[in-house]
Amino acid sequence: MVVISIVVVLEALALLTAAALYIYQLAIGAPVSSFWGAVFTLALLLAFSAWLFAVGHFLFRGYRWTRAAALVAQLFVLTIGFPTITGGLLLAGLAMVVPALAVIVLLFDKRVIAFASRTSGSRAAL
């Protein structure tokens, strides 16, 4: 569970870094085809980063719903990672695909399922 949470939080940090670079590019006047489209893209980067931070945090705490959220996030990463590899950016693509595949495999580990499905104890799994 710790490895999965760390990977998800690192993905959130990567998106936050991309958003910061995007803000920098907009601030220095990089050409964009649509200013409001660029603002919308920036909002999506920030929102998805915040979402991944929340998923990583609550996954570490054992909330049930986070397994599905983490799985969907990894599938999105794969949809960007594989075209990146086939587009000629091998290292960048592998940096996306390998952690995503590892998280997907670990999400279906019986220990992770048991941890995120606890119903007895000091707190209930949500």
Report on this model:
The protein is an all-alpha fold and 126 residues long. The protein is built from five helices and no strands. 18% of the residues are buried. The model has no long low-confidence stretch (mean pLDDT 90).
How many strands, which pairing sense, and closed or not: the largest β-sheet? Answer: none
- Shape by Cα distribution: globular
Q: Compute the gyration radius: what is it?
A: 17 Å
Q: What percentage of amino acids are in beta strands?
A: under 5%
Low-confidence stretches: none
Mean pLDDT: 90
Total strand segments:
0
What is the element string, with H for helices and E for strands?
Answer: HHHHH
In short:
The chain has five helices and no strands. It is mostly helical and 126 residues long.
Q: Which key features would you list for this structure?
A:
126 residues; mainly alpha; 79% helix; 0% strand; globular
